[in-house]
Write a structure and sequence with these properties.
Layout (H helix, E strand, L loop, with lengths): L67 H4 L2 E6 L5 E6 L9 E5 L1 H7 L5 E5 L8 E7 L5 E8 L8 E7 L13 E16 L23 E14 L4 E12 L7 E3 L3 E7 L5 E7 L8 E10 L5 E11 L10 E12 L12
Antiparallel strand pairs: 1-2, 2-3, 3-4, 4-5, 5-6, 6-7, 8-9, 8-16, 9-10, 10-11, 10-12, 12-13, 13-14, 14-15, 15-16
Length: 347
C-alpha cells in the first residue's frame, strides 16, 4: 500500500494492501494437538469423522477456509485460553519469530468501547512496525472472529482476518423460526495511521540526518453496529453496518462519523458460510466497495461470526488530504430472541 501524509500528525492512508452448539471453548483458541496454518484448515491430528466444519478440540475444518478476499495477509491466529494474548502469523514483519504474540492492550480495548471485543497489540521496539488485532467470540464459544492490521511504515501496511466455528452447522428446521435477525457490534482496523498514536513506543531523539526516517504508525479503529436479516428457507443473508465511527489514534476520545455500508444479498452454502458484496447506500458518499462474509454456529444457528474487507475514499477523514481507505472489519452477532442479543436492535 502507498502512504498519504497529513499535516502535523503524519497520518497516512495506504492505497492498496501488501496484502451443533459449541463446546464452550473459543474456536480460535490454540490447542496443543492441532497444527494448522489457517484456523479453518484441517488439523493434522484430526480424524474424528465430523462433517468437515468442526474445528474445535482438534476437529477438521472447511477445506476451503476463509475466502482470500477476506483473509488477506493473515496466515494463522489463535487466542490464549485466558484471552490475555493472541498468537498470530501474518505475511509481514511483526516479530522475529514465525508466530508473534500480541498482548491484550487495555487502553485500546477501552478506546474501542465494545463489550466482549478485545484489542491486542505488538511493537517489539520503537522503530519496528506496530501491529494490532481485534477479536471476539460468541457466548457459547461456537464462533469467533478476529482481524489484524499494522500501522503504516515504509509505504506499506498489512491486514487480514479470520473466522471459525466449533461444531457443525445447525440451522433452524421446519417448524422453527427460519426468518431471523442478528444484531450486535462491529469493529474494524484501517490503513489510516499516525506516528502520533497513543500506544506507540517513544522513538526518542533520532540522530542527525535521520529526520526523514519513516517511523511506524498506529492504525485507526472503527466501531459501529451491524444487523443481518437471514432466511434459512431461501438460504440468503443481507444487512447493514451503521453508526460507523472512526477513532482518532492521536486522541481516542475523538471520533468522526462515517457513512453506512449496505451488505448485499448473499447465498448461505450447505456448510453455513456466506460471501457477498458490500457497498454504500444509493446516492450516499463516499463510495464504498468490497466484500463481507462469515459462518453460522451454535444450536439453531444462534450466532454468526464474520469479516468485511472494504475500500472507500478517505479524503477529509481525520484530516486526510486524499487517498483510498482500506478497512478490515469483524463481527460476532447473536440471533434476536437469544440471550445476549442487543435488544435495542431486535424487532
Amino acid at each position: 500500500m502507498k502512504t498519504l501524509g497529513i499535516a502535523l500528525s503524519l497520518l497516512a492512508l495506504l492505497a492498496a494492501c501488501g496484502s451443533s452448539s459449541g463446546s464452550g471453548e473459543n474456536p480460535l483458541q490454540s490447542d496443543v494437538d492441532c497444527v494448522r496454518d489457517n484456523p479453518l484448515q484441517a488439523c493434522e491430528s484430526s480424524g474424528d469423522g465430523e462433517d468437515g466444519s468442526d474445528i474445535g478440540d482438534g476437529g477438521t475444518a472447511d477445506p476451503d477456509g476463509v475466502p482470500g478476499a477476506l483473509s488477506e495477509n493473515l496466515a494463522k491466529f489463535s487466542f490464549a485460553s485466558d484471552m490475555r494474548s493472541v498468537t498470530v502469523t501474518i505475511n509481514g514483519l511483526d516479530s522475529g519469530s514465525a508466530d508473534a504474540v500480541y498482548m491484550r492492550d487495555d487502553a485500546l480495548t477501552d478506546a474501542l468501547g465494545i463489550d466482549d471485543y478485545i484489542a491486542y497489540s505488538l511493537q517489539e521496539d520503537s522503530l519496528d512496525r506496530f501491529f494490532m488485532s481485534l477479536g471476539s467470540s460468541s457466548l457459547d464459544g461456537s464462533v469467533a472472529a478476529a482481524v489484524v492490521g499494522s500501522g503504516a511504515q515504509f509505504d506499506t501496511v498489512y491486514q487480514g482476518g479470520t473466522y471459525a466455528r466449533d461444531g457443525s452447522y445447525d440451522p433452524p428446521g421446519a417448524g422453527e423460526d427460519q426468518q431471523v435477525t442478528y444484531s450486535g457490534d462491529y469493529a474494524a482496523l484501517t490503513n489510516l495511521s499516525t506516528r502520533d498514536g497513543t500506544e506507540l513506543l517513544d522513538p526518542g531523539t533520532l540522530p542527525d540526518g535521520y529526520d526523514e526516517f519513516d517511523l511506524p504508525g498506529q492504525p485507526a479503529m472503527i466501531r459501529g453496529a451491524i444487523l443481518l436479516n437471514v432466511s434459512f428457507v431461501d438460504n440468503e443473508v443481507n444487512g447493514q453496518i451503521f453508526n460507523r465511527d472512526i477513532i482518532d489514534p492521536r486522541d481516542t476520545r475523538t471520533t468522526e462519523r462515517l457513512n453506512d455500508v449496505m451488505l448485499e444479498l448473499a447465498e448461505i452454502d450447505q456448510s453455513g458460510e456466506f460471501l457477498g458484496s458490500a457497498a454504500n447506500a444509493a446516492g450516499d458518499s463516499p463510495t464504498v466497495s468490497g466484500s463481507y462474509g462469515g459462518i453460522f454456529g451454535g444450536k439453531n444457528a444462534s450466532y454468526v461470526a464474520g469479516l468485511t474487507n472494504l475500500e472507500w475514499d478517505g479524503a477529509g477523514v481525520l484530516g486526510a488530504a486524499s487517498g483510498q481507505a482500506q478497512e478490515i472489519g469483524m463481527f460476532v452477532l447473536t440471533q434476536c430472541g437469544t440471550p445476549g442479543a442487543v435488544a435495542a436492535l431486535c424487532p
